[in-house]
Structure formats: C-alpha cells, structure tokens
Amino acid sequence: MVIKPKIRGFICTNAHPVGCAENVSRQIDYIKQQPKPDNGPKNVLVVGCSTGYGLASRITSAFGCGAHTLGVCFEREPTAKRTGTAGWYNTAAFHQAAENAGLAFHSINGDAFSDEIKAESIEYIREHMGKIDLVIYSLASPKRKDPESDTVYSSTLKPVGETYTTKTYDTDKDLVHEVTLAPANEEEIANTVKVMGGEDWERWIKALHDAGVLADNCQTTAYTYIGKKLTWPIYGHATIGRAKEDLDRAARALNSQYADINLSAYVSSLKALVTQASSAIPVMPLYISLIYKVMKEEGTHEGCIEQIYRLFTEGLYADNPSLDEANRLRMDGKETNDATQAKIEALWEQVTQDNFHQLSDYQQYHADFLHLFGFGFDNVDYDADVDPEVSW
Ligand code: NAD
C-alpha cells in the first residue's frame, strides 16, 4: 500500500508505519545522546504510552534509564486495507527498538479507564516486574466509561462563566478568523472533570497499591497544561482547566492516602506542543504556531522528548526539584515567563489572515503535525509500497 496523509479537519485519519518508526527512532536517539538521569526508575507503568508526552515518557524511562516499561494505550490495529493509528505503529517501533537494545517491555491495548485493563496490567506486573517505582499518567481522551456505573461521560472544550470571542486558525481552510465560544453549563463542566480529572488516576493507584505492586518511595505524575493569559479562557480557566484542577486535588489525596509506602504524587505542568490531543483544541494551533516562532528565536524551543527528559532530570529524579505553590513540577517556564508571553501577546494582537504566515511558524507546526502520523520525514520514501499490517 502507498500511504499518503488523509487529513480531515484537525486530525489525520491514517498513519505511515515507516514514518512513525522514524519519529520514535529520533526520540530514542535524542535520549541516548543525553547524560543518564541519576537514580532513574527501574519499573515503569505508562498509562497513555503510545503518542505525545506518554510516548516520550516511555522512551525516556527505557532508553534513558534502562527501565522495564509496561505501556497501556488505546490504538487501532491495522488491516490489509486500513492503516493502524500512529500510536499503534509507534508502539510497534518502540518494541522493536527496545528488543534490539535488550530492554524489557510489554504493552496492553485497551481502555485504561476500565477495571479489566487495570487487572490485566497488575497481573503482568506481578508476574514479570515485581514492583513499580514510577507511574506516569498521560491519558488524553474525549470520553470515559465509568466502570462503577457504566455511564459514558464526554468532555467539552468550552469557557467557564462567560462567552469568549477570540482569534483562531483553521488549519483545514488556512484561515485566521474569530471564534465565539459559548460557556459550558454545570453538567458539561462536571462531565469534563469526570473524563480528564483525577478520579481515574486515583483508581489506578488504588488498584496498584491494593495489589501490593507499588514499591516503597514510588513516584507518580499526571500531566497538566497551565498556560497564561492568552490560553486561560479556553484552557486554564475553562472546562479542561477545571479537570486539571481536579488533578491537583487527586495528587494531594494520593500523597496522604499512600504515606505507608511514601508515595510521591505530582502534577507536572508541561508546555504547549502539537499532539493529537492539542490540535483538537480551538485557539491552540494559532497559539502554538506563534510560540514556535518566538521560542525558536529565543533558542528555547522544545518538543515532547526534550520536555520529558528535563522532567526526569530536573524534576522527578532531581535532588531538590523546584515545585510551585501547588506542589507541581513546572517544565513550562520557558513558555510561560512574562518576557516570552509579552512577545507572543504582541504577535497575537497583530496577527491577521494576511500576515499569519510571516508572523507565525506555521511551517513548523504543520511539519510537527505531519510527523505525529509518520508523514513529512525527508528520509522516508512515501511513494514506496509498504505493508500496513505491522503487529506487536
Ligand atoms: P496524546 O493524544 O498524544 O496521547 C494520549 C494517549 O492516551 C495515547 O497514548 C492514547 O492511546 C492514550 N489513550 C487515550 N484514551 C485511552 C483509553 N481510553 N485507554 C487507554 N489509553 C488511552 O496526548 P498528549 O498531548 O500527549 O497528552 C497527554 C497528557 O499531557 C494529557 O493529560 C494532556 O492534557 C497533557 N498535556 C498536553 C500538552 C500539549 O500541548 N499536548 C501540554 C501539557 C500537558
């Protein structure tokens, strides 16, 4: 099959196995070139391991620290006629590279919100890993089936309190335009918290703790985006921000509930980057295209792998990591500092349909977007016939 990108709106509906392997391999190469984190983890569970920040966390654990990794993801398997999802191919490529490097690994494809997948993970840990010393919680999902009630909750991306009008960029139509977003009602806020808040993170830690598979001094982190003024109305202070506030509540609860094993639970705040999750959020493609421009000029641009490597070396495995007032690990300072934000705000004021491509680095945004699905790598032959049926 010759595989070319099929882009529909903010998503690409197919993926290229060779290109996805290239994406994984570049991240592994980056990690191998860095000094090893001190006292890194040995047995790591990554919930949401196949793309974005979770994939980078798995690569850093395995290739940076030599850890045995168990990854959980929810990805579509390929058929002879239809490609798998990027996360499927990324996981296959990770397995191949880990095997070549003599690293231990296992992945489970299924709904991480369910009790069955938690039980399957615990069974694997018991039989093959012993105890886990790091749990990364990196799920991004539009819906969640609550295993207690079987109710399916859907998240919404809406402001809270009042209608918000702002600029956005439609990647499909190459159009900068105004968008007006109506505020969420209470039910929509509560449902978003149900999906993206801390409840499932707590269920994972409880299940692992009850099964006796968490090591003493185990660490766990869930990822958040805090951002600043430009993104607050649609992120930090919006429905998704409410869900992320619930992660702070969950981290506090976990720290006090599992003091018996001296568990350290952190929320880690990461920078805005192009991932499958962020490209779905209104305003983000415009904001990210502008910060790429500013941060590349400042020499501070980072991708998922650079962010997560710093999270390990300056946060999770640092002697005295700096924490913010809510006990969070902050890896987003290069984006959210006042000087950088002032430059982005100035561009934001000026940007129009006519000057968008001069003021922003949409080229980089688009390149990164294509890379997510294994497209746009100059060393991959996209005219070649490839077998989509890659298994793992
Ligand atoms: P992503 O879409 O790249 O990855 C999501 C992962 O979750 C994938 O591995 C997917 O398979 C898995 N997943 C989704 N639903 C699942 C389910 N039901 N069961 C099992 N696995 C499931 O997302 P991302 O951008 O890397 O986001 C990960 C976390 O990082 C999120 O909490 C997000 O809010 C946070 N974050 C993202 C950004 C950003 O700009 N992308 C910035 C800061 C923080």
From TrEMBL:
Per UniProt, residues of the Trans-2-enoyl-CoA reductase catalytic domain are: 82-317
Q: Where does substrate bind?
A: 225
Main EC class the enzyme belongs to = oxidoreductase
> What range(s) does the Enoyl reductase FAD binding domain occupy?
323-386
Q: Which residues hold NAD(+)?
A: 48-53, 74-75, 111-112, 139-140, 244, 273-275
Where are the active-site residues found? 235 (proton donor)
Q: Which reaction does it catalyse?
A: a 2,3-saturated acyl-CoA + NAD(+) = a (2E)-enoyl-CoA + NADH + H(+); a 2,3-saturated acyl-[ACP] + NAD(+) = a (2E)-enoyl-[ACP] + NADH + H(+)
Residues passing through the membrane, by range: none
Which pathway is this protein assigned to? Lipid metabolism; fatty acid biosynthesis
> Domain Trans-2-enoyl-CoA reductase-like NAD(P)H binding: where?
2-79
Q: Name the job this protein performs.
A: Involved in the final reduction of the elongation cycle of fatty acid synthesis (FAS II). Catalyzes the reduction of a carbon-carbon double bond in an enoyl moiety that is covalently linked to an acyl carrier protein (ACP).
Please state which protein family the record places this protein in.
Answer: Belongs to the TER reductase family.
The protein depicted here goes by the name Enoyl-[acyl-carrier-protein] reductase [NADH]
Q: Which organism is it from?
A: Idiomarina tyrosinivorans
